[in-house]
Design brief:
Elements (H helix, E strand, L loop, with lengths): L7 H9 L20 H4 L9 H11 L14 H5 L3 H6 L10 H11 L2 H13 L4 E6 L6 E3 L1 H4 L3 E4 L11 E4 L7 E6 L7 H9 L28 E6 L14 E9 L4 H10 L2 E6 L4 H8 L4 H4 E6 L5 H15 L6 E4 L5 H18 L9 H7 L3 E2 L5 H14 L4 H8 L5 H15 L8 H21 L4 H10 L4 H36 L2 H14 L3 H13 L11 H10 L4 E4 L8 H14 L6 E8 L5 H9 L14 E7 L2 H7 L3 E7 L13 H15 L2 E7 L3 H20 L5 E7 L3 H29 L8 H4 L8 E4 L14 H20 L8 H17 L8 H37 L7 H36 L11 H60 L4 H15 L11 H8 L1
Parallel strand pairs: 2-11, 5-7, 5-8, 8-9, 9-10, 13-15, 13-16, 16-17, 17-18
Antiparallel strand pairs: 1-2, 1-6, 3-4, 6-7, 12-14, 14-15
The structure holds guanosine-5'-triphosphate and magnesium ion (MG).
The site of guanosine-5'-triphosphate (GTP) has 19 residues, from helix 26.
């Protein structure tokens, strides 16, 4: 559109708004992102030149109020004196503009990316967006396909209500019924007004289309006739809420058909149905209508009966109907008596009836050819080359699945890179060192690491990456931007379906708490996502693993630094591998430092919070940036983005750039069951909190239960930062708080939050052995009133038809303003420049790698500990049982040893038994240790929480073994002792028995021959007995009878 001569009317309108220097397409998105005094303060509109900027500022913060700042506010005051004059001078249009003209002017001045941004945000506000943009002279206009490419919508058609599924699509690619609304000459009905009434439910006082009863809507239009706007009706899947059961696109043409014939013809051809609003039909108009084809099904006449010459007017309509041979149903009449509500109902019914007949659907993308055929220009044309390049990469994917493709074309970020991350952490922690010597283990790890690195270095540049890098390495910034955008669009739409299916299954599975399946699905989600960020990551890794210095790819950091300056995010922490390509990140940042003339003081701002709590949305709304947000795609790891600080704020803020860090959500309840999720979260939180000057803790009221864990994690991180003397400012953002009730509740809520924080801090302090810290305020400057922010929910009503809540954008803007104001007051001792920043980042990452930060998670920890104790006592019992049964056998064996053998032999036997049991115990000890290690490998029982008790348990096994060994030894010794003493006793017994026998025999032989009386005999025996047993001491006299009795 820049080649043609701009018509005078357009130029004079643009100069009225002070926009002429930006025409055509000279206003860039990037120029609006700078943080300066202007962007901070909202001044009332005091001149016409202020209006475009006020609009842009508001639309950047997604405020639905953006269209109401299109008039001068000071008008009244000036005219106060001559109010009576005012009555007669009706023509004050010099000072007024129609909002539609403003829209056209801005779209004509905006570059392709700002156009996309404006369309996206306007459609978030549920405003119509331009489909055909007039160039100021009547017939020329462009199809705004590119400008609408970024809009992605979600909806639930009624056939999916049951399954609770939904459709997510780029709206320009979706095949929808397409309805157009146009007007003949001076129709007295306001199309836009009635369309609004049809499309928006009664409760909401919202205008999709600007109409004549709105502020400025009645002002004469100067450049916007021929503008065609489009909006979409999208169902939410609830019959009692939805106006139409399916999604429908509505196009609304401004101005008379006669003035914009080209546009009308185009619209009629691409639409399923065209509604023509009219009072009467004149000859010339009838001609236009008769020239159309397929009217019967496609043309509807909407007639407004006006008092006066009703009859005459209706006659012309009747004539038209006959001439065009239109069925009666194609006529909708607003009778003189019908009021607005009745008529809009009629219109709505007519549309519904059409819907049930009309099946043919069209997407905006498919209108391309028709537009070219009819001589309209298409905004996308200039991006053809980049579209082709992106397509070439996409063709490389072909029918392959993403995981296959990634392995093939983006191999560096595959398993090797993840293994490397694990080895590097293990190098620091030596968790699996086991019994081997640490030095040996370390050198083993070193070898492993070198192996992986040399594997990585072997990869050749893949075809996909080659095209990607070639297209990035151009000096033409526009080309690069177009290419990246095309990549994003194509990749997103390619992966959208798959991802949203997976996400749905994931949500289902999470309810069933099947840990294994969740883990698999999570893995599938990671593997199935492919976005520009993966190509960027690969680019970084190509550099990270360059085999030699001065390689042809040595320009990559400079390229990435340019991208950073252009407002693209840089991946700081790879969330999939939990690793940082240090060399890459460092070199990119250093390049940036060079590029900005070594003036790179940074102010780092981070957002942390539970997954899908709207963190990225918050940053995007605050700063107008474009961190990816979507229900289907989550942020992984951490990304940094640079915002320039304007000259007027540099010294006050003490910085040249504001760096935003968007992070992966912490501990989603679903993921919490998965392995290493705590460790991952802790690393992430410690790392990013360590990097930032300001941390925003985003708390969504919907998931306040998980909040406690997030607070716990952050409390630790803050504590550690205090330990090393880094001071951070922390703000709490409470999302989805209805602002009115919040105020009365907030004192209590905030007190409660502080209590929780204090409790967390105490726990954390105990664990980090810092007894002096008792409260959260000992760690941070925390002002209960100044650091808590309530932000209402994002949507006003039920999505997808809900506009962004004005309360949301205003509260966010307010928060941003205060945040930067406090930063001004904050005299940071030494603002860090990039070199210090990256140095600090490296050491911080090292610390994170070294310390296996494990925190107390209240009940979970206790439970995890108890579980292990239970399990441990089972193993202990098995250990003991094994040894005990051996011991019983050994005892029997020792007891039964040949009595005739020497005592020495027994001693030898016991010694051999002892060494046998010692081997056995060692073996059992090994088994038990293995069980313990296996337990710690299992991951599903929060073992990471009790990691620090691992050594304790291992020591327990050692002492258990020692104890068992001692007890067995003692027992064996005892048995031996017993055996020996029994033998001694038996020997004595045997000896004495012999003596007594001999004596008895002797006595018998003596007495056999002598005639001794019984008495004498007894005396002789007693004497002999006493003599014989004199040597045996301590023998008690036994009462044999008693013994027999008691035995019996
Ligand atoms: N209902 C509602 N939806 C919101 C709100 N804020 C954000 N969303 C939506 O929630 C979804 C996720 O938002 P994101 O900004 O991507 O969330 P996030 O915290 O960055 O998510 P992760 O990066 O995955 O952790 C988007 O579809 C948003 O439109 C809110 O206040 N209310
Ligand atoms: Mg996010």
């Amino acid at each position: 559109m820049d080649t043609e001569e701009a018509p005078q009317a357009l130029l004079s309108f643009l100069s009225k708004l002070g926009l002429e220097k930006y025409y055509p397409n000279r206003l860039s998105r990037q120029s609006l992102l700078e943080i300066n005094t202007n962007s901070l303060n909202e001044k009332p509109v005091s001149s016409l030149e202020d209006i475009p900027w006020c609009f842009l500022k508001k639309i950047f913060k997604i405020s639905t109020k953006c269209r109401s700042c299109t008039q001068l506010t000071s008008n009244q005051k000036e005219n106060n004196d001559d109010w009576d004059l005012d009555l007669y001078t009706t023509n004050d249009s010099d000072n007024k503009i129609n909002p539609l003209d403003l829209m056209v002017a801005l779209f004509l001045c905006a570059d392709s990316f700002l156009q996309q941004e404006m369309s996206l945000k306007m459609s978030m506000c549920q405003f119509s967006v331009p489909l055909l943009l007039p160039h100021g002279n009547k017939s020329q206009c462009s199809l705004m396909l590119w400008a609408l490419r970024d809009i992605v919508k979600e909806w639930r058609p009624h056939d999916l209500s049951e399954s609770r599924g939904f459709v997510e699509d780029n709206i320009v690619q979706a095949d929808l019924p397409f309805y157009s609304f146009v007007r003949l000459k001076n129709c007295s009905l306001s199309k836009s007004h009635f369309l609004n009434k049809v499309l928006i439910s009664d409760q909401q006082n919202h205008n999709i289309f600007i109409h004549r009863d709105m502020e400025g809507g009645g002002v004469k239009r100067e450049i916007s006739n021929g503008l065609v706007e489009v909006c979409w009706y999208l169902p939410c899947g609830k019959e009692n809420l939805d106006i139409f059961p399916e999604p429908v696109a509505f196009a609304n043409m401004r101005g008379d058909i006669w003035e914009s014939l080209e546009q009308f013809k185009f619209l009629f051809q691409v639409s399923n149905v065209t509604f023509v609003f009219l009072d009467k039909v004149e000859e010339r108009e009838l001609e236009i209508l008769t020239s159309l084809k397929d009217m019967k099904t496609k043309l509807f006449l909407v007639v407004n009966q006006k008092e006066g010459n009703v009859k005459q007017d209706m006659m012309s309509v009747k004539k038209t109907l006959e001439k065009l041979d239109l069925p009666k149903n194609n006529l909708i009449v607003k009778k003189t008596g019908d009021n607005g509500a009745e008529f809009s109902k009629k219109l709505c019914e007519a549309i519904k009836t059409c819907l049930s007949h009309v099946k043919a659907t069209a997407s905006i993308v498919n209108m391309f050819d028709k537009a070219v055929e009819l001589g309209l220009s298409v905004d996308e044309n200039k991006t053809g080359q980049q579209k082709k390049a992106a397509k070439e990469i996409m063709d490389g994917i072909g029918v392959r699945s993403f995981p296959q493709y990634k392995n093939l074309q983006l191999p560096l970020q595959g398993d090797n890179w993840k293994t490397l991350s694990k080895i590097e952490k293990e190098e620091c922690r030596l968790k699996k060192c086991g019994d081997s010597r640490p030095e040996e283990y370390k050198s083993y790890l070193q070898d492993e690491k070198q192996k992986v690195i040399s594997e990585q270095r072997k990869y050749k540049l893949s075809k996909g990456m080659e095209i990607f890098l070639d297209n990035l390495s151009t000096n033409d910034k526009d080309k690069r931007d177009f290419f990246l955008k095309w990549m994003k669009l194509k990749l997103d739409s390619h992966s959208r379906k798959k991802l949203s299916d997976l996400r749905n299954t994931f949500k289902e599975q999470c309810k069933q708490k099947d840990v294994k399946l969740i883990a698999e699905l999570d893995q599938a989600l990671v593997e199935s996502s492919l976005g520009v960020e993966h190509y960027m990551r690969e680019m970084g890794l190509i550099y990270e693993f360059l085999p030699e210095p001065h390689h042809e790819r040595y320009h990559l950091p400079s390229l990435a630094a340019e991208l950073l300056l252009d407002g693209y995010p840089l991946e700081l922490l790879d969330g999939d591998a939990s690793n940082i390509p240090e060399r890459w990140v460092t070199d990119v940042l250093m390049e940036l430092h060079k590029k900005v003339g070594e003036k790179s003081r940074l102010l780092v701002l981070t957002v942390l919070g539970v997954q899908s709590s709207g963190k990225s949305t918050l940053l995007n709304t605050m700063f107008g940036v474009q961190f990816p947000v979507s229900s289907g795609r989550c942020t992984r790891g951490a990304y940094m983005l640079f915002l320039k600080v304007g000259e007027d704020l540099k010294s006050e803020l003490n910085s040249d750039f504001i760096v935003l860090i968007d992070t992966e959500g912490l501990k989603s309840p679903d993921m919490a069951q998965l392995e290493e999720s705590y460790e991952h979260d802790n690393q992430l939180a410690t790392f990013v909190i360590g990097l930032s000057d300001v941390t925003i803790i985003n708390i969504s009221m919907e998931n306040s239960t998980e909040m406690k864990d997030v607070l716990q994690i952050t409390a630790h991180a803050f504590l550690r930062m205090k330990e090393i003397g880094k001071k951070t400012i922390c703000h709490f953002v409470h999302q989805n708080v209805a602002s009115v009730s919040a105020d009365s509740n907030c004192v209590r809520e905030r007190k409660h939050l502080l209590d929780q924080l204090n409790e967390m801090t105490q726990l954390a302090a105990e664990m980090e052995k810092q007894p002096s810290i008792k409260a959260f305020t000992d760690v941070l400057d925390y002002d209960i009133d100044k650091t808590n922010w309530n932000i209402p929910g994002l949507w006003h009503g039920t999505p997808p038809m809900a506009p962004v809540n004005t309360g949301y954008s205003e509260a966010v803007a307010d928060f941003k303003k205060h945040l930067l104001e406090t930063m001004k007051g904050e005299r940071r001792s030494e603002p860090s420049q990039i070199p210090e920043f990256q140095e600090w980042m490296r050491s911080l990452w090292k610390a994170v790698k070294y310390k296996n930060f494990i925190f107390n998670f209240g009940n979970t920890l206790t439970q995890a500990y108890d579980n292990l104790c239970k399990e441990f006592s089972d193993w202990e019992w098995e250990f003991r049982k094994e040894i005990l049964s051996w011991q019983t056998e050994a005892e029997v064996e020792i007891s039964n040893a040949d009595n005739g053998s020497e005592m020495e032999t027994w001693k030898e036997l016991v010694e051999s038994k002892k060494s046998e049991v010692s081997k056995k115990i060692t073996n059992q000890q090994r088994i038990m240790k293995k069980k313990l290690s296996d337990y710690y490998e299992k991951k599903d029982r929060h073992v990471n929480l009790i990691e620090k008790y691992k050594t304790d348990f291992f020591n327990n096994i050692k002492s258990l073994a020692r104890e068992i060994q001692m007890s067995v030894n003692t027992r064996l010794d005892y048995i031996l002792e017993l055996k020996i003493s029994t033998k001694k006793a038996q020997d004595i017994q045997r000896m004495y028995r012999g003596v007594i026998e001999e004596q008895v025999m002797k006595l018998v032989s003596i007495c056999k021959d002598s005639k001794l009386s019984d008495e004498q005999l007894i005396q002789e025996f007693e004497k002999m007995w006493n003599d014989a047993t004199a040597d045996i001491s301590d023998l008690k006299e036994q009462d044999i009878m008693e013994d027999i009795l008691s035995t019996l």
